[in-house]
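Re-running non-specific serine/threonine protein kinase to confirm reproducibility after the cluster update. Everything else is unchanged from the original entry.
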Amino acid sequence: MIGRLLDGRYQIRSRIARGGMATVYLATDLRLERKVAIKVMHGHLADDSKFKERFVQEARSSARLAHPNVVNVFDQGQDSDMAYLVMEYLPGITLRDLLQEHRILTTEQTLDIMEAVLAGLAAAHKAGIVHRDLKPENVLLADDGRIKIGDFGLARAASANTATGAALLGTIAYLSPELVTRGLADTRSDIYAVGIMMYEMLVGEQPFKGEQPMQIAYQHANEVVPSPSAANHLVPAELDDLVLWATAREPDDRPKDARALLDQLYQTHSSLMTALPPTASTAVQRTMVLPSAPAAEPQNSTADTQVFGAELQQVAAPAPTQVSENTTTLSTRATKRKSRGWWLVVLIVLLVGGAAGAGWYFGAGPGSQVTIPESIKSATPAEAQAMLEELGLVVSDELGETYDPVVAVDLVANATPEIGTAVPNGSTVQLLISQGPRPIAVPDFLGMTEEEARTAISEAPFTLVEPTVKQFDGDIAAGLVVDVLGADGASIVGAETYGELQDVSLIVSAGALPDVSCSTVDEATQILAGVGLNAQLGIEVFSDCAEGSVVTIDSEKNADGVARTFREGDTVTLITSRGPDLVQVPDVSGETINGAISELESLDFVVNVETDLPQGFWGSGLAIVSGTDPAAGEAIKRGSEVTIFGPQI
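Result of re-run:
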C-alpha cells in the first residue's frame, strides 16, 4: 500500500496502526495539500457487505458530528476492491499508549481527559448516536493538547433498545452488563465504558480480569465494579462516587447520557480543586511589610555581625517577679495533673472496654451486618446453605422459586433478601431456586417483515442471534419471515411460549432462486454469486439445452420428497446438459406390425400405426410394415413419435 495513489487523490505515505477491521495509513491529500489519516478495510473483508456497511456507517455517524472532541471524517470512497475513510490526522498518541507508559494517572489528568471525552460523547448522544466501542485505544491525545474520540465503526442510532450484533461483535473489557446478557445498547452503555476507562486511569488496571473473554463477560454481567480507592488509596471519594455511578449494573441507576455525567464531572472537578491544599507553587503570595532596620551610624553600615547593647537585652529579659509567678503556676498545675491521673487511667480502661464491646457487637455480634454473597448464585441449594451458614446466617427450610434466563434449573438464582443485600448477623435467608427462563408468549412471526420481527423479538424479550439468515423461497416474498428458530435449532413458530432472553435465529426470505436454465456455467455462476450463493458442477443429463450449458439446480429432495432449501453462503449443484438424447430409427420394414411396435417402444419412441386393417388382424402375422416416418436410420430425440405404415385394404 505504501506509495499507492487512491482515487487519484490520496498518496499513501506510511502505516500508522492496524486493527481487526482495517489498517490506518498516513497520506497526503494532493488536491488540498494536507496530511490526512486513511482507514482502509482489510482485503479479506472487502466482499462482506456487513463490514462495508459499518464503514459507511462510521462516515455517516462522524459526519453528523461537528465537535472539537470528535475526529472529523472528510471523505469515504471505494478504489478498486478497497473501501476507505479519509479522516483528520492527529499526530500524537492514544490514551492506551499513555496508560502503558505511566500506568496510573493523577486525579487532575483523569479529570481533564474525561472532560474532553465526555464532551465529545455528549455531542454524539445529542445527535442520537451511541458509540458502542469506547476504550482507551479510541481516545486520541494530539501533540498540541487536543483530545478526541475516534472510531465510530460500531456506532448506531440511540434508541431505548438498540440491538447489537456479532456479537456479540464491539471490546469485552468495556461491555456493559446489558450488552453481555441481552445484546442491547443505548447511551447508558457508553457511560458504563467511560466508567471502566476512568477506573483504569485511576488504578492502572481494569476492574475485571480473566484468562478467557467469557470469564470477563461473566464478571461484567454479575459483579459490581469496586471502588478505585480500594486499589489506590490516593483516589478521592468524589471520584469513587463518579466511577460507581457510571458503572452501576442496572442501566437505570447510571447517568442517562454523557451530558448528565459531564455536568457532575464539572462539579466534582470544581469541588476537588477548591478542597486541595495550596502548595509552594500554587499558594497565594501576599505582599508583606517588613520592620525597618535600626538606624546605624555611617561607619557601622556593614554586613558584619553586630553585638547589641545591654538596653536591647533588658527589653528581652523577663522581670524577676514574672519568673516567680510563672514557676508557681506551673507547680500548681503539675500537682493538679498528678491528683487526677488515677481517674484518667480508669476512664481510658472504660473507653477501651467500650470500644472492644462495640467492635464485637457490630463486628461479630448481633449488631453486625452480613452481605449475602454473589457466590451462592448458580450453586446447588446445599452448597449455598453451607456458604450462608458459615457467614452466620440462618437458611430457611422452605425453598422459593424464581425464573432466571441464565441460571440452570434447580440451582440457586437469588435469595430473599436479594443477593448483595446487607442483613443483620443471624438473619433468616430464603433461597430462590431457578425454574429456568420465564415463559414468554411467542409472537405470530409469519407474514412480518424483518424489521417488524426484530422489534417483536426485542419487545418479547428474546435475544436475536446475528446475523439474520437469508433463505431462498419461491413461495414467500423477499424480506418476509420464513421461520424463527430457537437455541436448539427447532422452529418456535406456532409454539405458545419460549424462554425469556433465550437465543432465537431469524430466517428471512431472499425470494426465489434465480433461473439459470440453459445459461452457460460461467453465466450461472455469476448470477448465483450475485445473490450470495456458490456453485459446483454436478451430473450431466440429456436435455434440449445446448451441450455443456446448465439445465437446472439440483434440488436434492430428501426421503420425504421435500426439496432442499438454500441460504446465502450455501453451495448449489448445477446439473449440466449433454445435449438432446438422439436415437436412430431402426429399419422395421418387412416386420409384422406388432413386432415393429415392440422394437420401437423399446427405444422409448411413441408409435402411431397407419393401416386400414383392424387391430385384431395385426397378430395374424399377415400385416407387414412397409415403412416408417421418420425414415429408418434418421436420428431423432428419444421419446419422439414414429409412424409405421402397414398394408392397405
